[in-house]
Amino acid sequence: MARSGPRHPSAWRTQVVIHRSEVYWVSLDPTVGVEIQKTRPCVVVSPDELNSHLRHIIVAPLTTAIRPFRYRVATSIAGTPVSVILNQLRTVDRARLGKRMGKIDTRTMRDILGKLQAMFAV
Questions:
Q1: pLDDT by residue for the chain (122 residues), tens digit each?
Q2: Domains of the chain, each with CATH number or no CATH
Q3: What does pTM read for this prediction?
């Protein structure tokens, strides 16, 4: 399979910089089993240092199906109530990113990162 995009890491840095807490439309297909699917909004959770040096980023999908669950965070994007689904994290190539939708507020991002820290605590 042919690789798309720049092959040298320095060329990746010349692309648009992706920042933690930004929300993008992301194409999550193809999927397998119970993985969350289709093109949907996702919040970038990977640190800016990684985002500026790598071709892939870590995202958490958003859903309008608001359900109370320990590893979901309620917020809103463009006036629409959504839930950040932290138990469905995905590492995606930048080529899967579509239009930028906005940004998660600082308080909500702290909540997201706190829940991720709790999820991965040893």
A1: 444 544 544 444 446 789 999 999 999 988 788 878 799 999 999 999 999 999 999 999 999 998 888 899 999 998 999 999 999 999 999 999 999 999 999 999 999 999 999 999 86
A2: 9-120 (2.30.30.110)
A3: 0.85
Contacts of 24 (CB under 8 A, 6+ apart): 18, 41, 42, 44, 59, 97, 98, 99, 100, 101
The tokens 């997201």 sit on which residue?
112
CA distance 91 to 23: 14
Pairing of strands 90-93, 39-44: unpaired
The residues, any chain, with a CB within 8 Å of residue 54's CB and separated by 6 or more, are 9, 12
> In 3-state terms, what secondary structure has residue 96?
helix
